[in-house]
Amino acid sequence: MNAVRGHGRPAHPARPLRQNGAMQDHGAAARDAGAASDTSAAVRVVESWRVESGRVIAAAAHRQRFERSIAELFGEAAAERLPLWAGSPAGITPVETDWPRIWADVFESTPLTDAWFPRLSARLDDGRLLVELTLRPAPEARPLTKLSTRLDERRWPTLKGPDFPSLAELRASVHEKGAADALLVDERGAITEAAYGTVVGWLGETLVVPAANRRVAGTTLGVLEKLLATAGVTRVEGELLADPLAASAERGWDELWYLNTLHGISPVSMLDGTRLGLDVARVRRWRPRLHETSAVPRPDGRSA
Fold first, then answer.
1. pLDDT at 87
2. Which residues pair with 119 in a beta bridge?
3. Which residues, 6+ apart, have CB-to-CB distance to 149 below 8 Å?
């Protein structure tokens, strides 16, 4: 099995510009997901999603995951008082408001033309929950993804955001090797997920998903699983070994898919420098179906 590689140096975030109350960041094309600043007092929950001409895939799932993760990470500190909201189109001064108002402002702030990649973040500021919005143009969706393995050492593997500083370092290190993202594995080489996406496998006609207790609950995976279930496709939870040279039966997969809100379905074309096989017909079948689930969100963050 290939050795798990070490850390690299951190990426340098682009400077954001403020427009209409939200931060507008034109470095997204280079960074996809961005990284939260890493200070002991500023651990963050982060949520982001792709918007195409005002349409979003699984808007309600993003809303639910963000609010659930905040409650899990910050507990009573987030529940005792209403959040401070720093993303209102009306101005830049944080205001105390409720979640329906926050979500209404988020979707009001996002243009209805072109492709965007909004990012919500939440952190504790002097004991108060502070929620911030950054608007970023979305890069082109990546049709194929190259990955390089790194050891999964996250502290909060089921939450999106708190581990972003260290994940940014891992992704920077694999960029130097020509990979788009880091494939996270445990000490045995079993895949948990990628730094900025879910990774699943296909073994024959069966979808194989890594155990849920070591990964973020992927919104794109959730939509795909519903589509596959409707079509009668078998889905199992199982172990996927990150060894591209092993036999399919031994490693647990014939093909790997990288899934996230920014790139949708992006088959893994190379792992640690080894080219992987691709079922083109399967990708052509499910990628359009995933896109067809997009909808214009309601003001409360649910899909219309």
1. 83
2. 48, 134
3. 2, 4, 5, 182, 183, 184, 185, 189, 242, 271, 272
Percent of the chain with pLDDT over 70: 83
d(Cα 241, Cα 135) in Å, to the nearest integer? 37
Q: Tell me what the mean pLDDT of segment 273-291 comes to.
A: 97
Question: In terms of Cα–Cα distance, which of 182, 174, 176, 178 is closest to 153?
Answer: 182
The range of the structural domain enclosing residue 75 comes to 17-135
pTM, whole model, 2 decimals? 0.86
CATH at residue 72 = 3.30.470
Distance between CA atoms of residues 160 and 153, nearest Å? 14
Residue holding tokens 């393995």?
A: 149
CB 32 within 8 A of CB 139: yes
Q: Which of 135, 155, 181 is the C-terminal boundary of a domain? A: 135
* Alpha-carbon span 131 to 169, nearest angstrom: 24
pLDDT at position 193 over 50: yes
What is the predicted pLDDT for the residue at 11? 32
Same domain, 273 and 154: yes
